[in-house]
Amino acid sequence: MDWGMQNRLSKIIKPKDGRTVMLAVDHGYFMGPTTGLEDLGKMVNPLLPYADTLMLTRGGLRNYISPDVDIPIVLRVSGGTSILSKELLREGMIANMEEAIRLNAAGVAFSIMVGADFERDTLLHFSKLIDDSNRYGVPTIAVTAVGKEMARDARYMSLASRIAAELGANIVKTYFVENFEQVIETCPVPVVIAGGKKQPELDALKMAHDALSAGAIGVDMGRNIFQSEDPVAMIQAVRAVVHENHTPQEAFDKFNELKKQTK
Ligand code: 5RP
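# ribulose-5-phosphate complex -> structure
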């Protein structure tokens, strides 16, 4: 692997333990002013000391994050539809590799829709991005988005994740499901999990812990952090699971302790 690609990957996946806490705040690209991110900068800046990577759009980055901030950026480069669309997630490129490099991104993220009527569109756009990714040494994260009509199970996640890796993804982002080992065993590149809809803090910590136990290398989590009753405490609890091997209960105790301190 080229030096530049390896160097950028090491900014996303921490070489110390091979794990990562990615903070996902790209939701506005299809959901607009998502709850918790109405003022993205106000929410995100206090979380940055505890995140390994920040995933967001170019507009989110330019408008809300100062350029002197010390955080590797994963740039959301797929989009083009909104939650109001009949073809949600029929995504194309919303930023190209030149823009990613201009923004000094450590990586780019693109959603693929395996199994959708328009899967060919997303997979071909994704493959084009992979060519640019290899040309310029910028790693690509494939986000295996799941359509409403598709099963959210290990068989589907395994299929989508393996296709992403076969097409050239450096990292796969997918959803945690039962029998997650099956997804890990059949995916030759590192896997991170998305958080999904907001759950009680202990459940989200348990999900992260179970994913890591099954072989995931970390999380790319959004709502379960920024919609928590205490986002700064929650990201530290997630970090304790990912980097300090805390059990879910230990991490939840840490969350409650930190929450008390900020009251
Ligand atoms: C959408 C995304 C989001 O970044 C992803 O869903 C992570 O956020 P959350 O933890 O809130 O699900 O990639 O396709």
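# post-check
The chain is about 45% helix and 15% strand.
The chain has one domain: 3-261.
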